[in-house]
Each structure stands twice: as structure tokens, then as C-alpha cells.
Amino acid sequence: MTSTVSANGLLAGDLPVLTRKDFVSDQEVRWCPGCGDYSILAQMQKMLPELHVAKENIVFISGIGCSSRFPYYVETYGFHSIHGRALTIASGLKTARPELKVFVVTGDGDGLSIGGNHLLHAMRRNIDLTVVLFNNRIYGLTKGQFSPTSEFGKVTKSSPYGTTEQPLNPIRIALAAGATFVARSVDRDTKHLEETLFKAAQHKGISFVEVYQNCNIFNDGAYAAFAEKDVRQERMLFLEDGKPMRFGNNREHGIRLNGFTPEVVHDAESDDGLIVHDATMANPLLANILVGMDYPNYPVPIGVFRSVEAPTYDELVQKQVDAAKAKEKPDFDALLRSGETWEVS
Amino acid sequence: MTSTVSANGLLAGDLPVLTRKDFVSDQEVRWCPGCGDYSILAQMQKMLPELHVAKENIVFISGIGCSSRFPYYVETYGFHSIHGRALTIASGLKTARPELKVFVVTGDGDGLSIGGNHLLHAMRRNIDLTVVLFNNRIYGLTKGQFSPTSEFGKVTKSSPYGTTEQPLNPIRIALAAGATFVARSVDRDTKHLEETLFKAAQHKGISFVEVYQNCNIFNDGAYAAFAEKDVRQERMLFLEDGKPMRFGNNREHGIRLNGFTPEVVHDAESDDGLIVHDATMANPLLANILVGMDYPNYPVPIGVFRSVEAPTYDELVQKQVDAAKAKEKPDFDALLRSGETWEVS
Amino acid sequence: MVSNGLMTTEMHSPPEHVVEELDRVTIRFAGDSGDGMQLTGTQFTRTTAVFGNDIATLPDYPAEIRAPTGSLPGVSGFQLSFSSSDIRTPGDQPDVLVAMNPAALKTNLGDLVPGGLLIVDEDEFNPANLKKAAYTSNPLEDGSLRGFQVVAIHITRQNELALEGLPLNAAGKFKSRNFYALGLILWLYGRPLDTTVKWAEERFGRSPETLDANLRALYAGHAFGETTEVFHTRYEVAPATVRPGTYRHISGNEATALGFVAASILSGLPLFYGSYPITPASDVLHELSKLKSFGVKTFQAEDEIAAIGAAIGAAYGGHLALTGTSGPGLALKSEALNLAVMTELPLVVIDVQRAGPSTGMPTKTEQSDLLQAMFGRNGDSAVAIVAPCTPADCFMMAIEAFRLALKYMVPVVFLSDGYLGNGSEPWRIPSLSDIPKLDWEYAKPVEGWQPYLRNPETGARTWAVPGQKGLEHRIGGLEKSGQNGDISYDPRNHHEMTLARMGKVANMTRDIPPLEVSGPSEGELLVLGWGGTYGAISSAVEAARSQGKSVASAHLRYLNPFPANIESVLRSYKKVLIPELNTGQLSLLIRGMFLVDAVPFNKISGQPFKIREIQGKIDEVLGLRGPYVLDFPQGSALSGG
Amino acid sequence: MVSNGLMTTEMHSPPEHVVEELDRVTIRFAGDSGDGMQLTGTQFTRTTAVFGNDIATLPDYPAEIRAPTGSLPGVSGFQLSFSSSDIRTPGDQPDVLVAMNPAALKTNLGDLVPGGLLIVDEDEFNPANLKKAAYTSNPLEDGSLRGFQVVAIHITRQNELALEGLPLNAAGKFKSRNFYALGLILWLYGRPLDTTVKWAEERFGRSPETLDANLRALYAGHAFGETTEVFHTRYEVAPATVRPGTYRHISGNEATALGFVAASILSGLPLFYGSYPITPASDVLHELSKLKSFGVKTFQAEDEIAAIGAAIGAAYGGHLALTGTSGPGLALKSEALNLAVMTELPLVVIDVQRAGPSTGMPTKTEQSDLLQAMFGRNGDSAVAIVAPCTPADCFMMAIEAFRLALKYMVPVVFLSDGYLGNGSEPWRIPSLSDIPKLDWEYAKPVEGWQPYLRNPETGARTWAVPGQKGLEHRIGGLEKSGQNGDISYDPRNHHEMTLARMGKVANMTRDIPPLEVSGPSEGELLVLGWGGTYGAISSAVEAARSQGKSVASAHLRYLNPFPANIESVLRSYKKVLIPELNTGQLSLLIRGMFLVDAVPFNKISGQPFKIREIQGKIDEVLGLRGPYVLDFPQGSALSGG
Ligand SMILES: Cc1ncc(C[n+]2csc(CCOP(=O)(O)OP(=O)(O)O)c2C)c(N)n1
Ligand SMILES: Cc1ncc(C[n+]2csc(CCOP(=O)(O)OP(=O)(O)O)c2C)c(N)n1
Ligand code: SF4
Ligand code: SF4
Ligand SMILES: [Mg+2]
Ligand SMILES: [Mg+2]
What we know:
The complex is a heterotetramer, with 2 copies of chain A and 2 copies of chain C. By secondary structure, chain A is of the alpha/beta class.
């Protein structure tokens, strides 16, 4: 049992050992049967007790989209806001109340289309938030228009002739904006997903997790080619810090670099020459190399691309306030009287 | 003399040989004396005649900021729009009228703060626009607040205790968003600037030029340490395609790679082992390495980081329209009657 | 309760049915969103339209894409009303409710007229489904349906039987139930099957099994009606007498898309549509993105701001520039819309209104963005506002919107709503050759041309489009000096330019049709409406008049400016009643501009007015009854809880 | 024209000056933006305030940061009016104009009263400068200034002489000219130099050369007045009788910042300010960012949407959440503001209005965002609106804004404007202990708590802040079921929730002070205003009354809801006149809500009302003269062309 006191003098209460069930709200879940969102919800609910944070000190904030319904289903504080703006609300909340654990749930449309700019800025600020982006490469809630992660040429309701634009890669954007924790997981691999969410939630600073999520109604099978159970080991590269990059059912293949270009080494007998993963490099170059690896040319990298430490915005702001208070002794009457005054009697 | 016909059947007119003066408008230039914007304007006006595009087929679109006053001073079509939205207007104009040459002028606040998202999306679409971002690392027009490119800890009007956020690197963002032409230049080096603007303007697809620009009122000397004439050769790395990376008054130093980390080789006698610049690589990794080089640890890279070819959004859209017209024979009466109809007599 | 008809196959000769003539029938199909109720409704509508009835429809989907099967929020509904005379609404309350499962019954029963016909799929009333619908006992058994004519049929099982032998599993067969129900209802109203058969053949031609299954289900349902004694009566609704011509069915959003393409053809300017998906406006994007062969370019932007920005760019480039959204998107567009006001570019903004504020109820209708459209921008900034009044009217008003935008160089807001956009009606297909061409002109490099010179009649500045030699100039959001367009901070200039910009909208008054009155040209009461309430208001007023009351109605399709004769119309009646699906937005404008003590009648429930609600309020205002209070049946949403 | 005073050093004994007593003087300093006119004006203001005059000021900067030296758009001005009695505006027209160069003369002369005193730096009237100011001949020589008392002085050269020997080049010396001018004007009005000397010592203490130069210039200017015969008369304006207390000078934006910090102290809640820079609101951000020691956190966001989003997050987190902007930024915030309406969180939004639409004239004032604040959101969505009426009033109204926001759980818009924000006045410093504390309450986990339970008196829902065990719940922009807060599409619920949200604002009527009337409580005419026009309106009405006219004035500081007694006040006068710096926004609301035939009086020039303009209109409405037409002197902007 731990006990924490939150801002505004609210007593967070004693912290009992929580279980997954404690994080299930009384709201009926309203996603399409078969939707990948269910898995993400389940792994999140499983993972949350492991954080050992009192329920009342956890907040889920989302935008609008199928994915953004998430907060209704988690028995914590929740805010289902407006399209694309979850990060702004989360940033304000976290800056005001640094002691809260704040999650942001967003979609490829919510987070990268209308909300793309807030993502950039929250990341460069390194606000201590955990951002989970459900990437189904489609607009689910509005029934099937292409999204900024839809493949070039994709035919959708709003692109009957195929799209004419290249997709964004969320990981690439996160790296470029300076996110201190960047990872990818997939709805179908529940164990990996739970672990990744846990690592992200434990990171201090902004953590960004792209989850490959299947929308079985409007974009079914978007990741099936590599994410289904039977092909996963052969077609995805599970990143493990400090380990050489290997994949395959028997981890028989490896990845090495040829100049700046990664190469698959089939049946690599030795680890020599294989890239050793290191997510903690200050320089994001290795991560940038990995992010360019796409199926079917490469196995799809999954796991933690980057994880570095840096001071967070919310703590820096709090420190400035604390230091100012300590140094300047707040006196409002004196403030009102600062500068020229005169007496009339 | 060339003659071009523009959309809507407007005759673009015969194209006389133009000079710099032809691109000077009758508007009084209203920047602070000494502002770096003057140089950018002058180089642009010098460069424009070289494009051999009729004045009436050139459009400058800007947002709001000191930099965004630019269109008033160029004797072409011009649109001084609203804060952060120049790229949206330019995207619409270019998509509607692919035959126009469209420039976008923006600032670090206009283009990366309020307008950051439009930058991402215009770049991934590869719309054929030339975007020039005047980076003075400050909000000039609103009199001196920090901008998204201001250094960490900078004291400004709105950050009397120093900022608490890391800057964005415009080039990094452009690369991550998939821009097909990415370059950097500096107001003080007029020749380099003119050349860079020219290359950018000739690129088909989106071209992005970050110009280091001095705001002598609110952020004087932001680039003085490396951009002033006397130190320039020693402290900046002029990128030249196909050439080994060398700098110094006598080009005596070089740059090589150590793993993913660039290293300065002082007094490199031979070119062996020095990185050879190649802006045309499909993979943006070399550019990503260069973008991490900052003064004083490295000479500051300047020139073209990336220049690759790809179909543009505006031409792809136009092709879809042309193909549909050719194939489907537009017949509105038939369209109205498509589906179930019935006669009442 | 009528017993189920499982034993019908044992019967030999079809029973005789009484045929009853009706003037008007309203049916609602309700089921799970997976049950295909929209398709059922649409097919019945088509058949009935071809048969010659006048018809109006109101589809209603759940907010969720696929709420859990059988759940209350997963219910999807489709209401239609058809008649042997002119009708204008999909009916206040259904006379017939087809409920495919308990959840559908629960959420829709409140609307069924007392004594109405209730057809349910008895097979679905099992404990699991009853629980999902939060029933503690089975309504088919607990007597709670006593007030209705209940026809409980084993639709699922009968359908399965009909499909026996087809290479489909139970789930596959289940999918044809809606055709069974459709066949049954077509029989009940004496409608032929051929329209549906033909449609199904086209639609499922590539998948013969599905086609076969659906057709078998259709015939089975039809045969069931024909051969059982479940129904004692068949109904007939004679064809309506309508104007000769070629007709089709059209929804408001389709008519909107087609109307804007028509504007493009009538003007000769290519159409550019910048948009970001949003319910209930997305269909306009879907429709237009198909029409590339008409030169339409659609730009799905990263957000609403980029969408209008792109449209402004296209307008500046001399195209027919359009952007479209719903309420929250209009809020986002407001800053950029003001740029279009300031730069005086022709632009049309579609707002398919939905229930607000904020995200509100995205799938529900409301008329609550009028004041946002009027005033939702900084500074004194006028845009023109038009509002179609029926689904088909969207076509003509779309053309009107561009006529005004091009002529006056002013942004025009096109205020549709979810009820119009998703609702549909039969439409006599017009010929473009009967519609006047749209006038516009690009500026030409004449001596003395300046970017802010104004047309003395309209007040419009010239449209100087890039590509024209000699007209190089600069525009923007800063105040501009009249005529030459240089930036100006001159006080007089700003005063005059503000009035000039607003004056252009005022000038349109001379150019728009007068407000038409239906009914006596003076009298006790005028009922004034706008937008999608047309059907309910005009029907209610006609009904009132047929009861001898001195009531007229008028419907505004132009909201800014108002038609020139509005004040004299208002002053011709002792009282003015303004029903609106908001808290009184038009009322405020009318009262503020004309100092007329108009009585607001407001409903903010996300649902359209019922005819009888307006009748009730008319009677109140006429002093024929006490205060009329809206009554909302508990749990009466077409869908959702 | 008075000859220049270059030969003064040759004179021996100072001439005797006549002293004239005046009640009120208005001075405008105008020069290039590099000429330090704001500093000159501010210093004169301080001295005069300490001297005991009542005073009001109006700074006016060019839109450009540094327009080219000597150009028309580069002119910067500072007007101040001081008096021996109570004054409320910085004066209609200057009695004295100090013009440091031809451009300053050109852009300001139109405002000088006929026969007014015009002091110019003759040295600057050289061909180059005349050309920049678009003069074809030298106005000092061509007789065009005949209607004024012109005093042309070689300020530049005299100042240079005074600074001889200092280690400064000509450009450096040139920078002290404003101190020379200040010294001269201080002499002219018999003001001591000590306030300025003390201030300069503090300000330039670290740079002894600058200090020395500026003080020498100051003394030289003063001595010039004393020793020359250029001025025959010196003027005296006796101190005003004001309430005893400690006074300071305060601008509206400073008072705004301090008022919100006061609200933080009075509530005990930390202040969070989310903002994005924009003229003329940025100063509030600058002020608040200095006040970290009061626990203030400022968040400079990436745009206005992020700024309000962050503030909503802070409000949700239980802080005193504030966001601030000007008109275009309010447009951008509208969608998110609606989220705050829907989630019923306490939030205050500052709008320091400027001239619109679109970018408009950023440095000019206007009152044209009232209807945007009222209606600029989708759906039926009410926010409360308060509007300070003087610079110092911003302090109290800031506290009021949070009092209402916290008590009713409603966003409140605080409508200031550029005139108030940049203008300043003497302010009797209040003591926080005299101001009531602000009440608020976080929800507590009591039996039966639900997120949308309402306080029966105010209608407010509870403020359930993360961190409180047992109150875990979800809120959002979708319609919520009353009480339990689940998503709801129920028609009745939406109807009732819409009315409940609007009802909270209506409930405030009981909680805000009644509208105060100044003048007779009934009579011929009521002049009703709001916001920054208070000074001009009340002065004009008092003047009218002193001429025996039956006119009262009332000023609204609460615009939504209106004070409870407004209707009875309106009905107590035969006529109502509403002067506004817009096209009639309050007028529309008053007319629409109360059906009172109020006469709008509108000025949309980016400038405040002059007292005489309102007097003119009063006389027109009273039938004492024909139609009153605003006349804008050509080229009369304080700055800009
Ligand atoms: C301002 C605004 N614009 C548009 C919408 C409509 N809208 C809701 S969700 C959505 C996109 C959803 O896509 P995504 O974020 O990928 O979420 P998903 O449904 O796929 O999980 C859109 C366009 C809205 N609600 N608000
Ligand atoms: C919607 C909106 N928000 C804010 C502003 C105020 N504003 C004008 S320019 C600007 C930033 C200018 O910085 P930058 O883009 O770096 O341009 P610079 O002046 O430095 O060239 C801001 C915040 C505005 N005009 N409109
Ligand atoms: S539409 Fe797609 S993303 Fe949305 S709930 Fe259904 S399956 Fe999931
Ligand atoms: S403020 Fe800075 S950026 Fe703006 S014009 Fe002046 S020097 Fe240039
Ligand atoms: Mg998605
Ligand atoms: Mg800048």
C-alpha cells in the first residue's frame, strides 16, 4: 500500500493492489465486433495495474474517431475531446498537474491529419505524456475515407480513383520532432503490445506508441501480410535493446548495414556484422534507418525505436515556478505598487 | 520570346526577357532597416528572371509575419493571407491551376508553429510549390516572443525565465515529411542564396528552403557566429553534389563518418574517407546525418540536402481528371438520370 | 396478438384479403445496423416512387459504425411515408413498425401510432437479445404491446427454410432476412416485385449465390403475405397526381453534389471541392470525388482549415471554389472564411448542420448554425446565406449560391442539415438547358484597372486571376485601400470598406426572389420557417387552413439578405410564429431587424418537427388551446438510447 | 510663424512668461517610430499624474515593427489628456501637437484643433524627409499651416549642441531628441523634471553615457523654454480633486494581467494561461509570464487552438484556466470553446478586440467581436460575456469573469479592446483584502454523486477533478445524459441539456449588479454603451445634461446575460441611442431581445469615439439638429496612411 498526495491538496488515497477488472468501466464497448481496438483496450487494462498508480491519478484523453472512444471504457478519469486536440488538452493538464499520469489515445486521422501539428509540438516539448496512436490507415468513424497513413493509390470512399498522395510514417515524424520514446506494436500480438504499452507508460517524458490496428470494416487486413500469428516471426523484426537484429521462425536471418542501406542476411550463421539494436542513442540515426524498412522488402521492425532521457516540459515549468516563488517572495500588494506610485490625501 | 497559354484560356502573353527591376513592385518596403529580409527579397528578384516564366504566371503566397509581407514587394500576383495558412491556399491554387509557378513565403512562427501541420501535409503530397521559410528564430511582427526554432532556455518577452522547450529543426521535419527538395541558405551569403532559390524554383515537386535570416531588432546576430563573411568558410559546410565534404578557408578540413556519427577531419590531405555529398539518394539518411550537425561542434551544412524526383500531387490529380474525361465522356443529363428513374405522363 | 405463421406451408389455397384504400401510410423499418434496414427502406421507396406515390424518407443510422449486434445503440432505422397526394415529410409517426429484434422494438415503439401495425421477427426475441435490449420480460408475452396490432413472425426460421439447399451457412442466410421483410411489406401494400428484382440483379449480378438467396427471401416474404391469414387486410395507396416528367429519387446530399456540378457546367468554370470528412457532410465529398469526368477536383485536406484554405486558393485561381463541412468544421473555418470576406473572393461553404454544440449528436439534425454562419467571425463581416428547404431543393439552391457568389464576389454559406442531406424525395429531373447560365467575368487589363474598383450596381470588385498579363496585384487580409488595394490604416477608408463589403450582401436583396406566401396574403397568423422544416410547417399550415383557420406560411430560402418583401409580409399578419430546430436563431434576427414580436417555437431534440407539433403551437398562438408543450416519448429516438 | 530659436544662447536674461490657467489640455507627441515618442508620452504622463492631474492616454504604434525611417507608415504617436477635473478620454483632438518630422506632421495635422499649438523640429524638414512624407512643398514655408500657432525649432541641432563633447556620434546624439522635446513640454506646463530624472537614473543607470546624454537633452529643452521668447505663455493645469489613496498608472492590459492574478489569489487556485501571441493581446502574456512567483504558469502554445486546449486541460485539472487572444484568434478558438461549453468547465477567454474582419488593422481598436463571442460556435451554445469599460476596470472585471466561471461552470469571454488594453489611466490601488474571496468547490465522493448533477440554484454541474478517489468519470463533446453523463442521443435529454446549459448563463442575471444609470432615471434619451466607449459616452452625456438636455447614460459591463433591470431602464426613456465601434452589434441584441427601437450610432474606423461625435448624434436624436455625419479628417490616422 502506497499513499500519494496530488496537487490542490487532494489526497490520492491509499493504493490497493489493483487488477485488470478495476480498470473496466461500466460503459458498454461500442466498437465493431472484430475491431483491433478491443485488443488494445484489453492490453491497456491488463497493463495499468502494473504501473502502481492510483486509478484516480490516471487520466485518458482522446480526440474523435473510433479509437478515441477509448476513455469511456477505462475506469479512470477520462476526457473524450474534439477532433485532433487531445494533445493540447493533455499538455495543459499535465503542465498544470505534473503529478498525474496522463495518456493520450488518438487515431491516424485524429493524430496525424487534423492533429499533426500538436503532435510535433508536444514531442519537441517532451511533455510527460504517453501517446498511443491507433493506426488503421483509414478514417473509421466517418466510414472509410483515406487517412494520412493510407497507401498511395488506395481506393476509398473519398478516393474512388485512388489517392494521389504519399502516406506519412508516424514513427518518422515522432523521431524528427524529437520524441524521447518511440515505439511500434500491433493489435494482434497481445504480449508485445502489453509490454510496449508498459515501457511507454514508464518512460519519463513524451512516449509515443504507434499501434498497427486492424479496422475490419473499412480496411480489413491492412497488416495481415506480416502481423498474423503464423507469419509474424518471419516478417517482423522484433527490436530488442543490446541484441543483434535477427528474425525468422528460428531467428535465422539478420539485418546488417550496407552504407546507409539496411540489408537482410538470410541464414546468418554468426552475429558478426549484424546491427545491434540500441534505442538509447542520443542521435536518432539508427532509428531513422529502421523506420525506412517496409514489408515486403524487409521485415517490419516492431518494438522500441528510441528511448532517451531528457528533462520534461512540465517539470521544467514547475521548477521555474518553484524557484521564482522561493526567490521572489510573492507579495501582491507590493506588485500592485511596483513602479511609480503617488499618494493623494 | 516564348508564349504560353494558361488555364481558363487566358493568354499568358509573349514573354520578353525580364530583369530584376521587372520584379520590383511599387510598394514601399517596410521592414526594419538592416533586416535580413531585404537580402532575401533582392536575391529573389534577381533570380526570378532566370526562371523564364512570365510575371503573370508567378504567384507569391504568404501567411502573416514580417517575412510574410514579401508578396507586396514582388511585381507578380501576390496573396498575403492569414497566419499559418499560406500553404493551404497555395495547395488549392496549384491543384486548380497546375500551370502557375507558385511560391510560398513563411516564417518560423508562421510555417512551423501555427502552420506546422500544413507544412507536413503539403510535403508528403509533393505539391509543386517552392516554399521559402525565413527562420529568424523569433516572432518578429509581434515584437519578440520565442518561436519553435528558438534555442532552449532563450530569454524573450514571453519567456523571461528562459524557454523550457527544445526547438524544431525545419530541415529535419521537411525530410521526415518526405519533401523532395530540401535546402538551407543564409541571408548574408547573397550568391549562395540566389543559387539556392533558383535550384528550388526549378525543382518539380515541393521544394523547401530554410533561410537563416537575421532579425536585427529582436534576435540580432542569431547566426553571426558562423554566417558572417569572415568566418563563413571556416564554420559552414557548403554542400556540393558529387563532391567530398570539405570546408575551411582553403577547404582544408573534411567530414567523415564514424559509425552514424559525422566527424571533422582537420587538415585532411586526401579526400579518401570523406563523405561525398549526394542529394539525390532516395533514402534520406545522409541528409538526416547532416541535419544533426550544429555549430560549434560542426560546421553548419548549407546548400541542398535532398533533391529527388517524384510525381507531383497537382499533376496526378490533373491526370485523373483528364483520364476520366477521356474515358467516361461527361454527360450531365445522363448523370442526372443514372440509377432508377420513372416517367409520369 | 396474431399467432405466428410457421404452419403456413401446410395451407393449400391462399386466403382472400380485404383491400382497404388509404391516402397516406408511414412505415418504419428498424433493426440492427447489420440487418440491412437502409436497403430495405430504400427498395420499398423506389418501388413506391415508380408506382407513382409521392414519398418522403428519413434514414437514421446509429452513431457507431457497428455497435454490438443486438444492442440498443446499434439500432438502425428507415422511415418513409407515401401518399396518393402531395406530401412533404416522412410522417410524424409510423403507422407500421417493422422491428427485426428486441432492441429495435425498444427504441422505436414509442413512436408508433396507438393501434398501429407492429411486425416483429419473433425468432429474435430470445433471452440473449432481450437482455441486450434491457428487457426484463419478453414484450411479446408480457402484454405490454396490447395497444398495437402485433404480428409476430418467425422471419429468421422461415427465411432459413426458404433458403434451404443454398451453399450458405446460417449466418449467411440470416443476411437475407431483410429481403424477406421487404417482400412481405411489398405484398401488404400491393406493390410489384419487379423493381427490386431488377435492382438486385444489377447489384448482386457478380455474386449469383447472394442474388439467389436474396431473391428467394423476397419471394418467400411476398408469398407469406399472400398465403397466410396473418393479415386480414391489404392496403392500397393510389398513385399521386404529379407533374409529368422523368423522375428519380434523390437525397439532399446527392442533390447538393449534383447542383454544384450543374453550377460548374452553367458557369463553364471547373469545380474545386476542398473538404475534410465529417458526418453528415461526407457524402457530398464521396459524390463529388466520383465526378472527375466533369472536371471536378476534390481535395481531401488535412483539416477543415486547410480545406477552406485550398478552396480560397482555387477561388483566387478563378475556379468555382467550394468547401463543405458540418457545424464544428464551420467553427474551424471561420478565420479563413473571414479572409475570403476580406479578399472578396467568390466561395461557397456548405454546412450540413447537425445537433450541437461541440460534437453534440453527429447523426442528428438541427438548425442551430444560423447565427454562427451570420456572425461567427471577428469584425463586421457579412456573408450571404442560402438554405434549401427540401432534399431536391438542394440542387437549385446550390446553383443559386454560386450565382450570388460570382456576381457579388462574396462568400455564400449554404445551410443544409442532416435531415435534408440524408432524407430523400422523388425529383422531377430538370434539364440544364432550362436553367439560366451563371454570369461572371475575369478582370481584363483595361486602362485604369485597379484591384478594388467596384461594379456600381453590385458593389463587387473585379476578379483578377493569375495568368492575366498586366493585372499583377496583391490582396490579403489586412484592410485595403478602396480602389488600389494598397494596405491602408486610414480611418475613413476602413469605415467605408466595412460598409462596402456588407453593402454587397445587402445589394443582393434586389436580386433574389420575393418571399412567397402560401395561404391568405393577410390574416391572423404567419408561420415563418427556413430550411428543412418546410415539409412540416407547410403541411401543418395547410391542415390548419383546411380547418378554417386564418393561417399562412412562408419559407425563407435566403437568410442573408432577406427577400425585399419580408417586412411587408411580416406586417400583414397579426401574429408571426417561427418554428425552428434551435433555441430561436431566426427569431432573434427577425425581431431585431423588424421589431416584430415573433413567437419562437423551438425544438432542440435532434429530430425534425412533427406536423402535429406545429399544429399544436398554431392553435396555441391562435388562442384555440392552452400552452402547447412538446412531448418526447420516452426512448423514442429512431436509434440510440 | 514663430521664428526659430537658434540664437538663444546669445540672450542674457530669461524673458517673463505669462501664465494661463487651463482646465484641460490634450497633447499628442508624434514622430518616427525610432524617435521614442512612446517614452516621451509616458514620461509626461507620469509626471503629470504625480502632479495630481487626472489623465488619460492613447498610444498608437505603427503596424510595422520598424517602417523605414521618416516614412508615413513609420509614424508613432502618443496622445494624452490631463485635467484639473475628472476626465475619461484621452481627448477628442490635441490642443498641442509635437511633430518630430514631416511624416508625423502629415499624418497628424488633420486632428489638431484649429488654432492649436504646433511644435515641429525644423531640422527634419529637409528635402529627403519631405519626399518620404509625400510633401511637394515644405509646409513650414508654403503657408499651409496658417491656421495654427506654429513653433518651429531646430531641435536636432540644438540638442546636438547641448550634447557637445559627449563621446557620441551624430546618430547617437539624435536619439536624445525626444528628451529635449520632453523637457520643453514639461517646462511649458510648469512640471518639475525630478520624476523624469529619477526614472532616467534607474533606467539608464548602467549606461552612464546614455543617461548623461538624455539628461542634458532634457535640461536643454527645459532651459530653451525658460530662456527664449518663442513661447509667450506658459500654461497651468491645477491638480484634480480625487479620492485619497495610493495611485499608479495602469494600462488595460496590465490591469487585465493583475486582475487575473488577483482572481488566483482570491480563489486560492493557481492561474494557468495558455496563449499564442497576437496584437494587441500579447502584453497580457508578457506580463503574466513574469509572475511565476505567484504560481502562474504560462503556456505559449503553437497556435490559438492549442492555447485554449491547454487551458481546457488546466480547467479540467482544477486550475484557474485562462486563455487570451484577439479577434482572429477567437475565431480559431471557437470549436474548442464549444467543448468547454459542452463539458461545462470554468474557463475565461480574453479577447482584446482589434479592427477586423480578418487581419484587418491589428493596431487599431474596434468593438466588433461581440456577436462572434455570443454566437460564433455551432449549435445553441451560450457563454457569459463581460466587458471592462476603462483600462483600470479590467482589473475588477477580470475577477468578475472568474467569479462567474467558477460559480456557474461556464466559459466566460472577457471582451477588452485595443483602446482599453493600450490606453492607461491613473488607478487608485485597491487592497485585495477589500475584495470578496472567490467561491468554488471540487466535487467530493459523496453517496450518489454523478458528474452532471446540478446545483439547484445556479444550475452548475460539479467540478470533479482528477486525483479525487471515487470520482473517476468521463466527459466529452458528445451530448451527455443529464446526471450520469453517459453519452446520450435521447431527444428529450438533448432538448433539456441544451436549455440547462443556456439556463446557467441566464441564472447569472440574479447574481450580477443592476445596470446603473447616470443622469435622470427617466426622460428623453438614454445613451447605452459597452466596453471602451465609456469615457466618450459618459463625457458627452454629462456635457449634454449640463446644457439642460434630458439625457442619461448607462454602460453595460455584462453583455451576457444582461443585468436584470435592463428592460425597465430601456423603457424609461423615449429614445435609446447605442453608439458602438461596429456596425450595430449590441443594437441588434437589444432590439431583438426587447423590441426597443434603439438607434444605432456606428463608427468603424479603427479609432475611438470623440466626445463631440456622440454629442452631435445626441442632438440629432433629440431633434436639435439635422442628421449627424461622422467626418473623418483626411489623413487623420494617428499613424499609418
Ligand atoms: C472538427 C471535426 N472534423 C471532422 C470530424 C469528423 N471525424 C470524426 S473522426 C474522424 C477521423 C477518424 O479517423 P481516425 O482518427 O483515423 O480514427 P479511427 O476512427 O480510424 O479510429 C473525422 C474526420 C469531427 N468530428 N470534427
Ligand atoms: C491567427 C493569428 N494568430 C496570431 C497572429 C499574430 N502573429 C502575427 S505574425 C506572428 C508570428 C510571426 O513570426 P514568424 O512567422 O516567425 O515571422 P517573422 O515576423 O519572424 O518574420 C504572430 C504570432 C495572427 N496574425 N493571427
Ligand atoms: S469502423 Fe473500423 S476502427 Fe471503427 S470500430 Fe469498426 S472496425 Fe474498429
Ligand atoms: S522585426 Fe526583425 S524580422 Fe521583422 S522587419 Fe524588423 S528586423 Fe526584420
Ligand atoms: Mg484511423
Ligand atoms: Mg520569425
